[in-house]
Amino acid sequence: MAAWRSKYELRREAGWRLLALPGLWTAELWKKVVEIVENETPARHPHVTRFYVAKEDGREEFYLKTYYSFGLGDRLKDFFRASKAVRALKQAEALEESGFHTPRVVAAGEQRKRGVLWRAFLLTAAVDGLSLPKFLDENLVAADPPDRVAKKREGLRLLAAEIARLHACGFVHGDLVPYNILVRLESGVPTFFLVDNDRTRRYPSWLPQRLWRRNLVQLNRIPLPGVFLQDRVRFLKYYLAHRNWNAADRRLLSWLERRTRERRAWRDRQSGARSFRELMKWDGRRVTKEKVASWPL
User: Fold this and answer.
1) Do 75 and 112 form a contact (C-beta atoms < 8 A)?
2) How far apart are CA 169 and CA 233, in angstroms?
């Protein structure tokens, strides 16, 4: 794991190579990370653990995401590249430099044996915000403010502009489902945080690519509280920044509906000949904290 020009410092701790943020990384945090990692059972999917560290005026919340290397294929690939944890740190730093919001990465670490990656971790500070579904549920559906429609449309416009700018900067998020967008109100205006960036990539602006369309499918796949079919169409119009639909936009809209149907059938076991409006209708159930607790990083 080579150091690169960034604000993170390269350190070595008990067989680990770390990239740590000066001023936030402490011996107490390292002790807690080791305690958690050493007591975990390796698994193919990452572990996510929330924990707290006491401080003078209360306690601070952190999330630890640990990755394990399984199979010869993964270990061969990881021999020649950085771990998912370090790649996530790099992408978070690149996003921040481009003006996007992400959870603050405190440290990333890799443990290798003769160059072979065995496990890695990513430590982030918690964000004082709600996942997009939870935010909609609490601030639009449950609260039912008198200016709900205006607030929803303005929020859609701001989110669409943020995603359009993300793609214009060359970024393609690895899994841009609504649960991977946290929302925090600042003076009544929503600020969006992009989480789970270990598969996010940045492509040169001169390179033609259509991977950005995958993000639109990911965003569109999950029914949301208070969001209707016309809101989804309005979001796409905001994203494209067009006053009127042209032929290319209509083809994109048709493609997006088809791909969303396919993803709903495959991932959510939701299919059938019903209309797209019915397929994407919110079922009225409340979004629970337990639902979003596994999507913090």
Assistant:
1) no
2) 23
Question: Which of 124, 127, 129 minimizes the C-alpha distance to 62?
Answer: 124
The model's pTM is: 0.89
Nearest to 82 by CA among 91, 70, 93: 91
Q: What one-letter code names the amino acid at 145?
A: P
Write phi, then psi, for 123 (nearest 5 degrees): -115, 125
How many secondary structure helices (H) and strands (E) does the chain include? 10, 11
The whole-chain average pLDDT of the chain stands at 88
Q: Is the pLDDT of residue 227 over 90?
A: yes
Residue 126 identity: A
Please report which confidence band the pLDDT of residue 188 belongs to, taking 50, 70 and 90 as the band edges. Answer: confident
Residue 269: pLDDT over 80: no
∠ CA 18-58-196, nearest 5°, is 40
User: Cα 37–39–42 angle (5° rounding)?
Assistant: 70
111 DSSP β-pair partners: 16, 119
Phi first, then psi: give them for residue 293, nearest 5 degrees: -65, -20
Q: SS3 of 239, please?
A: helix
- CA distance linking residue 172 with residue 203, whole number of Å: 8
Secondary structure (3-state) at 215:
helix
The answer to whether 234 and 214 have CB atoms below 8 angstroms apart is no
Give the pLDDT band (50/70/90) at residue 264: confident
Report the pLDDT value the prediction gives residue 292, as an integer from 0 to 100: 40
What is the reported pLDDT for 297? 43
Is the Cα dihedral 293, 136, 226, 229 positive or negative? negative
The reported pLDDT for the residue numbered 73 is 66
Q: How far apart are CA 122 and CA 89, in angstroms?
A: 8
